[in-house]
Design brief:
Elements lengths: L5 H6 L3 H11 L6 H31 L3 E2 L12 E2 L5 H11 L5 H9 L2 E3 L2 E2 L13 E2 L11 H16 L8 E6 L2 H4 L8 E5 L7 E3 L3 E3 H10 L12 H5 L6
Antiparallel strand pairs: 1-4, 2-3, 3-5, 6-7, 7-8, 8-9
Helix pairs in contact: 3-5, 4-5
Length: 244
Amino acid sequence: METPNWVERYRAGAREQVWHELRQYGRQVREPRLAAEAQAVCDEMARRARHNLEVLVERLRADGYRFHTNDGSETPVEPLADPGPGAEELVTWLDETFGGIPMAVSSWLRLVGDVWLVGTHPEWPESSAADPLVVELEGARYRGISVREHYVNELDAWREWSGEEPGAAGFVLPVAPDRLHKANVSGSDPYGFRLPDATAEGLFVGEVAMPFVAYLNLVFRHGGFPAEQCWPVTPRLADGLLPL
């Protein structure tokens, strides 16, 4: 049986159709005849996302934007961390520990790295309230802290709270503060990926739950700040970014 030729079509511009088809296949994208093609699409998506992030960081820095922690200290932060040497191993561990992770999450870990766009723009003091993009799967900023131990503790706490058995759906792997915490205001639960999930794209639980790539496209259309409110420089930040 022929494969759907997703990679070639994705590169040719039929991205929305390809993602629609991948969503329709669900867990079946793991079948031998489909898995390599589906993973290749996710890898291509991740490369495009990494390009967009490099462009965004450069543009924000040129504007005088300060990337910093989401607390009163406003400690400077490196906004984009390369995938670490243990990224591949972490992918395997997450997949085994949580009963399956989306292919797109694997691609992000291996090809994008950790992202932290929280900060302050000199012309927009409220920028941190616009829900700047954060996806920290490796925990590169938190030296001396085991991200694996952190994830296991979060899972144990969720099981205790929910009464669910191991392997039950509904756990959200935390990878970002929620919108209010990004602005240093007491908020709600962290954003993250609902697991287990063996589909291609996965579900990102943020302000609302939505497919991960759909969320990323929303973010990039708004120059990295999906909750922005008519900020004048946003169109320039978003100009020319690659659709995923």
